[in-house]
Amino acid sequence: MLLMTVTTDYSPTMVRAKAEIYRSRAWRVALGVAAVGGMLYAGTFVNGATMVTATELFKKGFGLHQTSVRKLAKLTGKDEGELQRFVDDKLSVVSKVQQLLKGEINVKTLRQAFVAANAHLDIFMTALAVDAAVDVAVPFVGSLAIVPFSFGLAWRILCIVIDEYEQCALALHDFAFR
């Protein structure tokens, strides 16, 4: 199974198989995020780093990172820049979430990206607000109370990201091989 998740294979069958494997393991990452959620103030930073790392690994596994796109361009004879723009356009909302988790953009910028993309990730925006408010209002107890919420939120976000990556990889295959 490990080999299947790390090899670059552009076939729709393999993309769907990888998505199922990633979905079946997303709860483990979410559990780690929830466990760290109890750390006062540091939880948000560590959780962000954990989520970014997981989503980057998923992106690489689906063959959507720059090196894989370059290989696909060589394989199909398509323009690398065109394929990379295709991926970037399809994943604009996921990229914005990652930028927020890395601290590169603020919540207002992320909200604008969601509106522009007609994305319905209201739960994510609500969770960010709740997490920040709880950390400030009730520092220690609030952090512990947020742990189950962190698990559910992390698991849901990971599933959304996996779905987005799966759809992008399938669309990229169709686009590259037509």
Present the secondary structure layout.
Blueprint: H1 2-6, H2 12-37, H3 42-61, H4 66-76, H5 80-90, H6 92-102, H7 107-116, H8 122-137, H9 139-145, H10 147-177
Explain this structure to me?
By secondary structure, the protein is an all-alpha fold. It has one domain (2-177). The chain has helices at residues 2-6, 12-37, 42-61, 66-76, 80-90, 92-102, 107-116, 122-137, 139-145, 147-177.
Beta content comes to: under 5%
Helix content: over 70%
SSE arrangement, N to C: HHHHHHHHHH
Topology, number of strands: 0
Query: Helical element count?
Result: 10
Return the average pLDDT rounded to an integer: 76
Radius of gyration: 17 Å
Head-to-tail CA distance between termini: 29 Å
Number of domains: 1
Main β-sheet, in a few words? none
Poorly predicted spans: none
What would the principal axes of the Cα set say about the shape? globular
Structural class: mainly alpha
Provide key terms for this protein.
178 residues
Quick structural overview:
The chain has one domain.
